[in-house]
UniProtKB/TrEMBL annotation, chain A:
SUPFAM superfamilies: HydA/Nqo6-like
The protein's name in its UniProt record: Oxidoreductase
One Pfam family in the UniProt entry: Oxidored_q6
Keyword terms: Oxidoreductase
Domain of life: Bacteria
Occurrences of domain NADH:ubiquinone oxidoreductase-like 20kDa subunit (ranges): 14-163
GO molecular function: iron-sulfur cluster binding; oxidoreductase activity
Alphabetized InterPro entries for the sequence: Hydrogenase_assoc-protein, NADH_UbQ_OxRdtase-like_20kDa, NiFe_Hase_small_N_sf
Automatic annotation (TrEMBL), chain B:
Pfam families xrefs: Fer2_4, Fer4_Nqo3, NADH-G_4Fe-4S_3
Protein localization: Membrane
Main location: membrane
Family of this protein: Belongs to the complex I 75 kDa subunit family.
Protein name: Bidirectional hydrogenase complex protein HoxU
Gene Ontology MF terms in the entry: 2 iron, 2 sulfur cluster binding; 4 iron, 4 sulfur cluster binding; DNA binding; metal ion binding; NADH dehydrogenase (ubiquinone) activity; oxidoreductase activity
Keyword line: 2Fe-2S, 4Fe-4S, Homeobox, Iron, Iron-sulfur, Membrane, Metal-binding, NAD, Translocase
Gene name as annotated: hoxU
InterPro entries for this protein: 2Fe-2S_ferredoxin-like_sf, 2Fe-2S_ferredoxin-type, 4Fe4S_Fe-S-bd, 4Fe4S_Fe_S_CS, NAD-red_Hydgase_HoxS_gsu, NADH_UbQ_OxRdtase_75kDa_su_CS, NADH_UbQ_OxRdtase_ferredoxin, NADH_UbQ_OxRdtase_Gsu_4Fe4S-bd
Gene Ontology BP term (one): ATP synthesis coupled electron transport
Domain 4Fe-4S ferredoxin-type: 139-169, 183-212
Domain 2Fe-2S ferredoxin-type, residue spans: 2-80
SMART domains (alphabetical): NADH-G_4Fe-4S_3
Length: 180, 238
């Protein structure tokens, strides 16, 4: 049997979920034997490939680039896992939402509260524009599996990946779906 | 005192006439999920988590305010009820701004625990992200309305156990919120005795001790229990 094509994607999050992934420690060797990492912040791949079997998506949808990325990821992946609280709920990334739209948020961050040189950064084509509202991944594209936690502990990630490698659709026990 | 016999989840139990279905179930070791219910203060049936099915009635009834009756046949955990309960928890999460990871009550929160119990791995409803305020004008306590589920436990412990009624509810629908005195900053309240019963009663991180940070706010429910026992059973020893 050929190895499972695994990808991980980092959208609007702090990369803590990816850190937690590294906490899988020596089990990463077992994983590498059964899965081939084809796209990830951990490796140097510029283009999200076709035919990905499983993708872990960390982070909420917060800017235009995230929005475009998640649509590509969904189209090219068989099984999409919402990886961590930001992807599942919006979490800290979505804390800005109650402030209002982009203008209100930027004004709050770079406007009145900054004493020196308070100017709103704008680098068209380099810094992707923010979306008016941060949303969880499943608000934009269909999600197959939810893996909550901030970050999800390594054993929770392992539970999901192990059942995927055995060809089953993962089902987390109630004790493993705690937010926060 | 009359004894009533009834059936809960195919288990024959007996209960005192004045008891509610919730009390009778608890005494029989049958757990029904609750959120607004707090032993020792009045029941309001607000959260609807304790809804149960009673044979012969199409309406679901809240177990906390429904008295037992002879021959009642009750189901507390049917698939329909489980679905409704998960939906209620999802609505609570979508209605407020509940961010467990940065909450003072992370790990000690009844809403968070209920989400686990209902198997809520995500919220299917659109998050509302309402604009809500935080009031830390009080010397010892604070309230973060983002985390409030409007259970009114604070209102009831303040009124019924402390006898002060600093807390109340203002507004309608999605604009409902708890207020102190005449809708003024908590720190300026002339009735608040700073007893902290509201903080002990709060199921989430909405009411907290000043200075507590993520995960540090453990609500001291034993204090409420002690006061209730002292009043109702005249037990003053810890």
């Amino acid at each position: 049997m050929s190895r499972v094509k695994l990808a991980t994607v980092w959208l609007g999050g702090c990369s803590g979920c990816h850190m937690s992934f590294l906490d899988l420690d020596e089990w990463l060797f077992d994983l590498a034997a059964q899965a081939e990492l084809v796209y990830s912040p951990f490796m140097d791949a510029k283009v999200y490939p076709e035919g990905v079997d499983v993708v872990l998506v960390e982070g909420a949808i917060a800017n235009q680039e995230h929005l475009e990325t998640i649509c590509t990821v969904r189209a090219r992946s068989r099984l999409l896992i919402s990886f961590g609280d930001c992807a599942v709920t919006g979490n800290v990334t979505a804390l800005r939402n109650p402030l209002g739209g982009v203008e209100a948020v930027l004004q709050r961050c770079y406007g009145g509260t900054v004493e020196a040189q308070g100017q709103i950064p704008a680098e068209p084509g380099i810094v992707p524009p923010l979306l008016d509202r941060v949303t969880p991944v499943h608000a934009v594209v269909p999600v197959d599996v939810y893996l909550p936690g901030c970050p999800p502990p390594a054993d929770r990630i392992r539970t999901v990946l192990e059942s995927l490698l055995q060809g089953e659709t993962p089902r987390l026990e109630k004790s493993q779906i705690r937010f926060g | 005192m009359t004894v009533k016999t009834l059936t809960i989840n195919d288990q024959l139990i007996s209960a005192r006439e004045a008891e509610t279905i919730l009390q009778a179930a608890q005494e029989a070791g049958i757990q029904i999920p609750t959120l607004c219910y707090l032993a020792g203060v009045s029941e309001v049936g607000a959260c609807r988590l304790c809804l149960v099915e009673i044979s012969g009635s199409h309406k679901l009834q809240p177990a906390c305010v429904t008295k037992v009756a002879e021959g009642m046949v009750i189901q507390t955990n049917s698939e329909r009820l489980q679905n409704y309960r998960r939906m209620i928890i999802e609505m609570l999460f979508a209605e407020g701004n509940h961010v467990c990871s940065v909450c003072v009550s992370n790990g000690h929160c009844e809403l968070q625990n209920l989400a686990v119990e209902m198997g809520m791995d995500h919220v299917r409803l659109e998050y509302q992200f309402p604009h809500r305020t935080v009031d830390v004008s009080h010397d010892r306590f604070g309230i973060d309305h983002n985390r409030c589920v409007l259970c009114t436990r604070c209102v009831r412990v303040c009124d019924e156990l402390e006898g002060v009624h600093t807390w109340d509810v203002a507004g309608r629908g999605a604009k409902s919120h708890v207020i102190t005195d005449l809708n003024q900053p908590w720190g300026t309240s002339s009735t608040c005795t700073a007893c902290g019963k509201c903080v002990a009663a709060c199921p989430t991180g909405a009411l907290f001790d000043q200075g507590s940070t993520v995960g540090e706010m453990v609500h001291d429910r034993a204090r409420i229990e002690f006061i209730v026992n002292a009043r109702q059973k005249r037990q003053w020893q810890l």
